[in-house]
Design brief:
By secondary structure, this protein is an alpha+beta fold. It has two domains: 75 residues, ATP-grasp fold, B domain (D-amino Acid Aminotransferase, Chain A, domain 1), CATH 3.30.470; 113 residues, D-amino Acid Aminotransferase, Chain A, domain 1, CATH 3.30.470.20. It contains seven helices and nine strands, in the order αββααββββββαβααα. A three-stranded antiparallel β-sheet has the order 3-8-6. Strands 1-2 form a two-stranded antiparallel ribbon. It starts with a helix and ends in a 6-residue tail after the last helix. InterPro entries: ACC_Biotin_Carboxylase, ATP-grasp, Biotin_carboxylation_dom, Biotin_COase_C, CPAse_ATP-bd, Rudment_hybrid_motif. This is biotin carboxylase. Pfam families: Biotin_carb_C, CPSase_L_D2. It comes from Methylobacterium jeotgali.
Length: 200
């Protein structure tokens, strides 16, 4: 399926004559992909690709924008391991209501296979005017199981005080059997939260 959808995207970009970074988004349900949109920019989730390929996508984007060529060919790209990204938002973890305010304590995790992309710090004031994203936690492992174990540890180490964040939701999800076994779909989270899953 990965090869099929990748081929469709590559052919579409060739036919459009598109150059530059871009992401084509799909939903997957009942064994089929459904096109959502194309974003003609680097996406928030690009570190997942960087972690499993070792390629700096931002650097490649700048090279192409400056009139250069990519530093790698598609056939040279190797996908290794598994990566998961959690978007740490200043939001209530069950209602997703924004939680602007001052971060009174900030302690991001570290260690092998753990990456945190953020400009937040202790004392930073989150304004109410913009997107509530304050950081991204990206974890890589040789297998999905190893990745989930590292993610569990990294989420437990991540401390943000002073505002509500989505960290409690992710801590709950990473311990959920459906999530661990990949038994979820595009409706799963909505049903989980409606059933009081975060409080369980």
């Amino acid at each position: 399926m990965r090869a099929e959808i990748g081929g469709i995207c590559a052919r579409a970009m060739q036919e459009l004559g598109y150059l530059g970074a871009g992401t084509i988004e799909f939903l997957y349900e009942d064994g089929r992909f459904y096109f959502i949109e194309m974003n003609t920019r680097i996406q928030v989730e690009h570190p997942v690709t960087e972690m499993i390929t070792g390629i700096d996508l931002v650097n490649e984007q700048i090279r192409v924008a400056a009139g250069g060529s990519l530093s790698v060919r598609q056939e040279d790209i190797r996908v290794e391991g598994h990566a998961i990204e959690c978007r740490i938002n200043a939001e209530h973890p069950a209602t997703f209501r924004p939680s602007p305010g001052q971060i009174t304590y900030w302690h991001p995790p570290g260690g092998l296979g753990v990456r945190v992309d953020s400009a937040a710090f202790q004392g930073y004031r989150i304004p109410p005017n913009y997107d509530s994203l304050i950081g991204k936690l990206i974890v890589h492992g040789r297998t999905r199981n190893e990745c989930l174990m590292r993610l569990r540890r990294a989420l437990d180490e991540f401390v943000v005080d002073g505002v509500d964040t989505t960290l409690p939701l992710f801590r709950t999800l990473v311990r959920n059997a459906d999530v661990q076994n990949g038994l979820y779909d595009i409706h799963w989270l909505e049903k989980f939260l409606a059933a009081g899953g975060l409080e369980a």
